[in-house]
Amino acid sequence: MSDDRIILGAAAIPEPDKDWLAAVERLPIASVWQGGHVLPPSQTGEAITRLALMTAWTERVRVGTGVLPLPLYQPVVVAKQLADLDSRSGGRVSVGLGVGGEFRQEFEAVGVPLDERGARTDEAMEVLRLLWRGGPARHRGRFFRLDDVELRPVRPPGAGAPGMRPGGPPLLVSGRKRPAMRRAARLGDGWMPYLVSPDAYARSVRAIEEEAWEAGRDLAGFEWMMYLYCSIRRDGDRARDDVAGFLGSAYGDKPGAMLDRIAPAGTPEEVAARLQQYVDAGVRHFVIAPAAPADTLEVVTLAAREVLPRLSLPVRGGTP
């Protein structure tokens, strides 16, 4: 686990917006994220389309999918799309991915059995890495076959343009259950769960470390992230109302106590205290997802300017 620093990202909710992204790039924000389903019940965008917009509309920050429901996609096409975006952005792309499953109709529409989504995700991650490695690629899997094909990412014009980074973008696994933790430990470059408490995050860290040890994998450089729905306001009651309205309906008749554990809300001081619990549990990169119907830039600004400076790394061995 990296102990170097705590960094902050932001989710471009509800949709990527050029002016919003420009404002975020002026803040001490390291990354911006957006995901999206193919056929959700609401009118929202698609993950790679949104990623392309964020790539074009930013200059400095890392840009990522938060998250891409990978089993819905043919991995060779995704490998090409992401490679080209990484090349065009100067190596700023990251791939938050998950298995999906919230909307059965998506899987039926693209011809992917819902019960295959985990196995397809694992194999798709292998295909992405194989194609991004460069040179002729061969693969014989349960779902995909490659016969000496080669991916050649576009190289942007201009002297010294770096092109796609060696090995391609990092693959950051999202989820909340043990299979997702196993996937992160064995195949991922990082862990980015959502809607989990600090205690649950700490348990996931231990589970991933155990899985990696069993697989003989060194987790040096592994990214410990958290996609965190929250609201931060000068008026703490308004922030709590934001979260209750944004997420409460998903939890039936008992949202209050549950939301308090998994979606911090309140003043900067109150939210900083909650985020410190996640830091103590192992989080080093927060993606702040404003759980609010309006003024989301205020949430991100307060997170960057007033919450982040209050966070500190755990003291270990007498030094921070």
UniProtKB/TrEMBL annotation:
InterPro entries registered for this protein in UniProt: F420-G6PD/mer, Luciferase-like_dom, Luciferase-like_sf
Highest taxon above the source species: Bacteria
Region (Disordered): 155-175
UniProt entry keywords in alphabetical sequence: Oxidoreductase
Residue ranges constituting the Luciferase-like domain according to the UniProt record: 19-285
Keyword Transcription: no
Protein name: LLM class F420-dependent oxidoreductase
